[in-house]
Amino acid sequence: MNIRDLLNQRVLQAMQACGIPADLPALIAPGKKAGFGDYQANCAMGAAKQMGKNPRELATAIVAAMDLKGIASKLEIAGPGFINIDLAPEWLGSSLATAQTDSRLDIPQTTNPQTVVIDYSGPNLAKEMHVGHLRSTIIGDALARLLEFQGHKVIRQNHVGDWGTQFGMLIAELEEQLAQNKQMDLKDLEVFYQQAKKHFDEDETFAQKARDYVVRLQSGDALMQKLWQQFKDLSLAHSKEIYQNLNVTLTDSDVRGESFYNDDLAPLVEELKTKGFAQESEGAQVVFLEELADKDGNPSPVIIQKQGGGYLYATTDLAALRFRVNKLNANRIMYFIDARQSLHMQQVFTVARKAAFVDASVSLEHLAFGTMMGEDGKPFKTRSGGTVKLADLLEEAVERASVLVKEKNPELAANEISEISRKVGIGSVKYADLSKTRTNDYIFNWDSMLSFEGNTAPYLQYAYTRVQSIFRKAECDPTALSSNIMIQSEQEKNLAIKLLQFSEVLDQVAREAIPHVLCTYLYELASLYMTFYEACPILKEGITEDLRNSRLRLCHLVARTIEKGLDLLGIEVMERM
């Protein structure tokens, strides 16, 4: 159920009946302040100005033509021509009852499904994943989950860094360690990389072998390819473990790294040259973009082939775009890459459009995000100033959550504490990030993210468990209840309207790729539920069975909505906490 879409449709029909041009929007907004109804339509003032009529008179005509029988209990004109719409309690109750028994909460799938390619995470396989990979990974995954729920075909793409000169050094190191029968699980990729680099810097024989291995690898040498694949597999196993700990849906089949596009790089450069876009400049092949010229009018240079014949990130990204459009048939391509790459992505998109690699019907979106900052306002680092490994961060999150869970419920069994701590710890890290405006930097703070108060994962997880405890206390299965849902009090009505706005929120998040809006919605829903719970007795003696069951059904829909909302963010709930 999407209230705004329903009201928008009815208002537009009334506007057309009044002779208002079809291109004028209805501008439906939820009521947020005194003087609004449950929803408000701002449709008369713009139309009145265009048609030379009085806004209030036109609004009166729209109200007279509007068919909201059984949906609205009251329509009134406010101010210069706003239309306030108060929803009927009976309609709200009926809509809630439908959502409570529906497997999708009465949220329909899209009637216009698209193929959406989402580029996210993309770690460098030469090193361990660190906190810099967190935002891309969890924001991209949240959008992948949501768009799939809406009915779109989502193709995840993990564009890992698995090609380049450093792999000659790493393959040579791997070969030597295997020759010494050393255990190669690459548990600490940083140590392995540093060891290989030290070997490269200090041993010229090893360094020359590494350089030779790069040439052999890029020429398709079978042994080099085998060693390179072995290193890739070991490195990807590390990433896979992180994804599983993070409850992220990326799998091995989603990995399509830089190496995948290697065979298309030379043809791509030739095509750009043939079309007259690429030209030689100081021995390199460069596309000059007038569209992105600087303030002095100098075109933005995009190097697609270096002087020595090597290729760059731009070349690989252009090849990836061609593949995603021509082979994956993408209608929308979403890149979750940090804001520092904004110019690079602009350049890639502009070249792709100019060269007709991508036509105008395909949406290309660089969904940039800010940086995770430490308490000092600088990029988050270890106390010694080093990069924080993602595995270490997640481990610490679970350990800190375990302390809190034990304090809150010391009677829980060890296995329950372990499971709850995992969900709370991982959920806290993810929610603290997802609840912030995507484009902003944010301060990483353990105390605030693990708090059971405020807009946090623990608060929402606890709200869910409180609802579950009501069902245990009532000794009832809420799915078996069939009584009407009665909206009588102001608290019930506020909660009802918020529940029915879930679909609107999901549409906005999917459209604008802003998961913090979903987080805010869930927090507001949980807060309204707490207000309802305090004001509206559920199991208290003296209330009728019908009212008790009505409120239990309302509680059940709250729990299911919180559970589904958190699931779309990749955060788990638990029955007890």
Architecture overview:
By secondary structure, this protein is an alpha/beta fold. Among the domains are: 3-87, Arginyl tRNA synthetase N-terminal domain (Gyrase A, domain 2), CATH 3.30.1360; 166-250, no CATH class. 52% of the residues lie in helices and 10% in strands. It contains 20 helices and 13 strands. The protein has helices at residues 3-17, 44-51, 55-65, 89-101, 134-149, 166-179, 189-202, 204-218, 222-246, 262-274, 313-326, 342-354, 390-408, 414-434, 446-449, 457-474, 490-500, 502-512, 516-535, 545-568; strands spanning 28-30, 39-41, 72-78, 82-87, 115-119, 153-157, 278-281, 284-289, 300-305, 332-335, 363-366, 372-373, 442-443. Strands 1-2-4-3 form a 4-stranded antiparallel beta sheet. The radius of gyration is 28 Å and the shape is globular. The mean pLDDT is 93.
Label this structure with key terms.
four-stranded antiparallel β-sheet, 577 residues, alpha/beta, Gyrase A, domain 2
CA-CA gap between termini: 31 Å
What is the CATH topology descriptor of the domain at 3-87? Answer: Gyrase A, domain 2
Approximately how much beta-strand content do the residues carry? 5-15%
- Number of H- or I-type helical stretches: 20
Oligomeric description of these chains: single chain
The CATH class of the domain at 3-87, by name, is Alpha Beta
Q: What structural class do helix, strand and pairing data support? A: alpha/beta
CATH architecture call of the domain at 3-87: 2-Layer Sandwich
Low-confidence stretches: none
Helix amount, in percent? Answer: 40-55%
Biggest pleated-sheet summary? 4 strands, antiparallel
Task: Give the total of beta strands.
Answer: 13
Average residue pLDDT: 93
CATH superfamily of the domain at 3-87: Arginyl tRNA synthetase N-terminal domain
Shape: globular
